[in-house]
From TrEMBL:
The chain holds residues 1 to 386 of 514 of the full protein. Catalyzes the condensation of the acetyl group of acetyl-CoA with 3-methyl-2-oxobutanoate (2-ketoisovalerate) to form 3-carboxy-3-hydroxy-4-methylpentanoate (2-isopropylmalate). One of its GO terms (cellular component) is cytoplasm. This is 2-isopropylmalate synthase. The keyword Disulfide bond does not apply. Its cofactor is Mn(2+). One of its GO terms (molecular function) is acetyl-CoA C-acetyltransferase activity. It comes from Thermovenabulum gondwanense. Keywords: Acyltransferase, Amino-acid biosynthesis, Branched-chain amino acid biosynthesis, Cytoplasm, Leucine biosynthesis, Manganese, Metal-binding, Transferase.
Amino acid sequence: MVMKVEIFDTTLRDGEQTPGVALNVYEKLEIARQLAKLKVDVIEAGFPIASNGDFNAVKTIAENVKGPVIAGLARANFKDIDKAAEALKNAESPRIHTFIASSPIHMQYKLKMSPEQVLEAAVEAVKRAKSYFEDVEFSAEDATRSDVEFLCKLFSQTIRAGATVINIPDTVGYTTPEEFANLIRTLRERVPEMDRVKISVHCHNDLGMAVANSLAAVVNGATQVECTINGLGERAGNAALEELVMALVTRKDIYKVDLNIDTKQIYRTSKVVSTLTGIYVQPNKAIVGANAFAHASGIHQHGVLSEKSTYEIMTPESIGLTSNRIVLGKLSGRHAFVQRLKELGYELSEDEINRAFERFKDLADKKKEITDSDIEAIVEEQVTKI
Ligand code: KIV
Ligand code: ZN
C-alpha cells in the first residue's frame, strides 16, 4: 500500500525565525494563500503568544485561508495554549502545536525542570489543548539529544492524554540519517501508542542534513514532515520543502509515498517567499535556484538539446517553470549557438554560421554570459553587413 506523507509548512513560524525576517499580517496572509495553492497539508501560521502582530496574523490566516489545517505554536503552559486557541478558534481545521524540551541539556540549563516536571507539564498541556480542539500536536524539543527511555515515556503519556500528532524534532541539526532512522524505528517499536497517531519529523540544517534526515525518517515510518520554503529558519534553517517534495516525487521508486502537493506551484511559492522576506535564493540552490535548470557547458547543452533527460532528472515544468535555460558562454558549443540563432529567427547559411560562431567565441572569452542582444549584434556585424 502507498503511504501518504503530509507536508507541514512552518515558513510562517520557524521560517520567520530567520535572522532579519519580520513579516506583517498582510505579507503572512499572502504567503499563507500561496501555501494553500501549493496544497500543503498544514500551515503553521505563527506563535500567537509571541506578539500581538503574530496573534493577529494567526487569527487572520485562520479566518481566511481554507483547505490546509492551520496550526499555532504554544509552549507547554496554559497561557500559551489559551492564546493559541483564541487565535485559531475560527479556523476550518485548527491544530494546537504544543512543545517542551526533553533533552538533559535543555531541561537542566533552559527549563530548570526535572524530567518528572517536564512529563507532567507535557501531559497537562496536551489535555488543555485537547479541551479546545480535537487535533493536537506534541513536540519533544531537542528530541535527538534526549534519552530514548524518557522520550518513550513522554510520547506514550502525551498520546494517552490526547495528542494526535507526535513530532520528533532535530532541533539543533545534530543527527545523521542512519541515527535518525534508528531513533524513529526504536520509538515505533517501543511505544505501541505511536501506531494510532501521525509521526512527524522536524529537521534543522546545521550540518546540511535536514532533508536527508527527513527522508530517512519517511523510510522508517514518519507520516508528516515539517519544512519551510527555501529552507528558511533559525540558524542554518529547516528542511527545504521544495527539496523534500521533489526528492519524494522524483524518487517515488524508493520512497513510494503519496503527497497532496501541486508541484507546479513550487517555483512561484519560492519567489513569493523570497520577495516578501527579502532573503534571496542562492543561484545554485537545488530546485528553485536560478541555475537549477541551467546548462552552461557545450557537452551538457548538446545533451539536453538532443534529449532533456540526459542532464535533467526532473522537468522545469514540474515545478512551474516554462523551460530550462541554456547559458551561452565560452564553454558553449556550436549546437547551442545554432539553436539560439533559430530561436531568434535567423536562417543563416553554413558559411554565415561559421563566421558568427567564430566571433561569438571571441566575445565569450571576454564576457561571462552572451545575451540575445550580443548575438543580434554579432549577426549584424559578421553576417548581414558583409
Ligand atoms: O526546532 C524545534 O524543535 C522547533 C519546535 C518548536 C518544534 O521548532
Ligand atoms: Zn524548529
